[in-house]
Amino acid sequence: MSKPLEGIKIIDFTHVQAGPACTQLLAWFGADVIKVERPGSGDVTRTQLRDIPDADALYFTMLNSNKRSLTLDTKTQEGKEVLEKLVRESDVLVENFAPGALDRMGFTWERLNELNPKLIVASVKGFSDGHHYEDLKVYENVAQCAGGAASTTGFWDGPPTVSAAALGDSNTGMHLAIGILTALIGRGQTGRGQKVAVSMQDSVINLCRVKLRDQQRLDRVGYLEEYPQYPHGEFSDVVPRGGNAGGGGQPGWVLKCKGWENDPNAYIYFTIQGHAWEPICRALGKPEWISDPNYATAQARQPHIFDIFKTIEEWLADKTKYEAVDILRKFDIPCAPVLSMKEIADDPSLRASGTIVEVPHKERGSYLTVGSPIKFSGLKPEITGSPLLGEHTEEILAELGYSKDQIGKLHSAKAI
Ligand code: CAO
């Protein structure tokens, strides 16, 4: 099966998570992604949080599948020359170094554009160009705090809380991938490359859109009716942390199921969608609530919402999370079990769909990773293991026209 991005050559100058997540996605869809790494050490994640001595860590293998690895010291004159050759032959260069690092290496946008006017140069930074924090180095949780996610996540009586979901890293990488694909289509129209820049702060803010919605509602009316603070608690002038409340117009909460005393994940998420109220009452054995004016409308229910959740928990007390969902799905109630990573790893549906895949690796044997969350009718992304450090150096240099002798000289100069 041919892949849509086949023929697109990408210089992958990325490290850690935000950049690698972007280029990995493009590699799944057929791009030739050449990961350029410092000789001897490579991407720092190769050695971070290792679970097998001397083998690439899962942090690396799970973000760098389907790529080739080229070791190159781009601070040596010989290394710079190799990179220049590669730039002339590539479609995209992706990087997520600290601000200014690429310029210090001698590869400014102007220089790259001069070497190859068709090249798309895509960057992740912590903050956008011109921002008063533009010089900062940024990791995941820094971005979640600067992007409004932390101030609005967690419980009202606890501190700002970060999410386990990589809103700052992988999410930014996904934004960058959209930018690159857009620039590739743009290049088809103009024949020219361009700079594509995504900041981690902006990408988090983009996902916190509904919280900016809430800030404006709060400014106007002084309360937020879907938050647990309404109607009994106090609102200040900033969007509060709402615990597990549903963020849209449908109230919801995480509710205990059978076994919660010993299993930290024996819970379901339960959503009270307006049209499902009647079936919910029937399922709970509370038919009198259907016409009770204190419960009949969403507005009437809001002051009693935690009493309602308590009643639902009493109903759930003798049901496992799976049994509960199997009953509630028949009533068209939006709900799901709270799944642990262990349950996700073993889930047969996720295995069958290719979302959780086991891939071979030269050092590790095999490992589990997350496959493409995007499903196509005409493409089935095949996930391959991540490359060893420098595994493809000679192959890539030969493709660039280097002879064995010249490759030997690059070795002697410690450029590869
Ligand atoms: N050959 C020679 N030098 C290389 C090289 C290569 N192949 N690859 C990288 N380098 C050099 C860089 O040029 C840089 O050198 P200078 O500091 O002398 O200019 C140096 O290695 C280190 O790069 P860095 O500053 O990007 O790395 P760091 O570990 O200090 O910082 C990070 C890491 C992530 C904080 C920083 O890169 C950053 O803020 N990136 C932008 C935001 C981002 O993507 N963060 C998400 C990371 S995922 O959690």
UniProtKB/TrEMBL annotation:
Which reaction is catalysed here? Answer: formyl-CoA + oxalate = oxalyl-CoA + formate
Active site residues per record: D169 (nucleophile)
Q: Single GO molecular-function term?
A: formyl-CoA transferase activity
Which InterPro entries did the record assign?
CoA-transferase_III_domain, CoA-Trfase_fam_III, CoA-Trfase_III_dom3_sf, CoA-Trfase_III_dom_1_sf, Formyl_CoA_transfer
The pathway it acts in is: Metabolic intermediate degradation; oxalate degradation; CO(2) and formate from oxalate: step 1/2
Q: What is its EC number?
A: 2.8.3.16
GO BP terms: namely: oxalate catabolic process
Q: What does this protein do?
A: Involved in the catabolism of oxalate and in the adapatation to low pH via the induction of the oxalate-dependent acid tolerance response (ATR). Catalyzes the transfer of the CoA moiety from formyl-CoA to oxalate.
**Protein name according to UniProt:** Formyl-CoA:oxalate CoA-transferase
